[in-house]
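Entry type: protein chain
Record version: 2
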Amino acid sequence: MPDPRPPTRLTTFTREDPHAGALEFTVDDVGPLDGDVVVCLHGFPQDRRAYAAVAPLLAEAGLRVLVPDQRGYSPGARPPGRRAYAVRDLVGDVAALLDAAGAARAHVVGHDWGGAVAWALATAVPERVATLTALSTPHPAAMREGLLRGTQSLRSWYMGFFQLPRVPEALLLAGDGARLGTLLQRGGLPEDVAGAYAAALTAPGALTAALNWYRALPLAGGSGPTRPVRVPVTYLHGRRDPFFAPAAVAATGRFVAAPFRTQALDTGHWIPEARPADVAEAVLRGAGRL
């Protein structure tokens, strides 16, 4: 029986970064080429496979879905040093992807670190974001409030650990990435998915590049924007997410100066993998397709 799912076109695009030079990104391109564009951004330590079950659902509704391996995760886009992973550069990568696709704007979906990039993109260039669907990640200003006044600092302890040079790599890559895979399983990912993500980060320089997103946080503007976003937002969060404090989640709506809808899901952190139908429904509803 033929596979009814829309085919995935594997492609690349190149961005000439003013500081890091030519960077080549790997991208899944799913759905009709003339459809409204959706960009899906993964987090740590995922890659574009995080949206493997989401993209076909959106494509079946007539949308063109672009899912890149982001900076540090694409083998051709691993510049050295933490300064190359500042939020402004990550935002520039998404804008360059839209340019390469010929899209004036897109519906943007972001999970975990991808959510942080999505919030920053919607703040920096709102004219390029039709809607924002944030998965798990609160608005950066809500995160800062949680760090100062709530339990968010306890939940984010690992961010300080990731600032150490070489030690996190040595610990997480022990056993050819087996330790990282085990930690991801304990965090709620299925064994095969956790193993695939961990295996990808055993490539030379891959884990260091992924950790450089965290190591860039102390740089100016590293934690993202403080201003409210002015595009329509849907925010999905897991009731059992161990990484984001309820106070930061609850405060997010105060930093959206546009239509805002929030939905709590009975799941943990890994929303794209665990609840793809809910993600697709949120994007389609925001895009006026439901």
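Comment: The chain has one domain: 8-153+221-286.
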